[in-house]
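Q: What changes when fe (ii) ion is included in the input?
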Amino acid sequence: MYTQALNTLDPQAAAEDSVLEARFQARIDAEEKIEPNDWMPAAYRRTLVRQISQHAHSEIIGMQPEGNWITRAPSLRRKAALLAKVQDEGGHGMYLYAAAETLGVSREELVEQLVSGKAKYSSIFNYPTLNWADIGAIGWLVDGAAIMNQIPLCRCSYGPYARAMIRVCKEESFHQRQGYELMLTLCRGTPEQKAMAQDALNRWWWPSLMMFGPSDTESVHSGQTMAWKIKRFSNDELRQKFIDATVPQGHFLGLTFPDPDLAFDEATGHWQHGEIDWSEFARVVAGDGPCNRQRLAAKRKAEADGAWVREAALAHADKRRQRQAAAWRVAAE
Ligand SMILES: [Fe+2]
Ligand SMILES: [Fe+2]
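A: The predicted holo structure follows.
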């Protein structure tokens, strides 16, 4: 990455870079995948490290609001599904850290950025889960929004990220289905259960819409990441797709959305929505959401509590390597 900075002082090297850059863009335009050992512009690498690591951190922190309810699931069936889902999210985090590592950054460095509070993760996980219906609302809405974001990432220009997304999306669709089925069960239950489902929708709807990020007019990275085919759709386009898919599902449940301006536009075929409170989004992203401190504190504690496991695993791997090497020496003699 240093070479490119130095090249600005060297006209010949700069000319070589622009040839490489043109060739790189031509490959992207031809829908070829970029692989770890291929030449890539420093900014492309930086953008991907930021995006993939933020994605990984979101999966890992995202285990907390739901993990909180595993011991309180109302039946064995619900507990098994929730346990599997939370475990999947941990797996997604691991895939994604591995994908980020192919870009030359270490997992230790990324985890350090998370626990030190330097790295960002999805703002949605800084909201609390107050009752069991929240588990349904998260699966239905949060995983539903994640799918909208992640399906186009299966075609991302960076090979390792695109391939990780294919498997992740299959699991996300199970998460969405279990959440919706939970909501359906509550909505067909007692009036109290239906009221719980409505309350959960009321609290999770707006934060779910914020998951797609700021409006296109405000988003600084959009243009370049689209040209690099990291992103395929703008934030507003993805948000609209999500709203169009989700509103009829909510109506099927017999629930109402906490947006008085929500209306179907016959002319465009889209659901129009009211103004999103971007000041709330900015506050939560900046660290002042309802649970930011709690989430980071829990992650720090887990890191510290697990330190001995990592050390033991490394020591064990080292011992095995040494034994293997000794066995090979004996065999060679
Ligand atoms: Fe996930
Ligand atoms: Fe998920």
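Observations recorded in class: The pocket of fe (ii) ion (ligand 1) is lined by residues 59, 89, 92, 168, 172 (CB under 6 Å).
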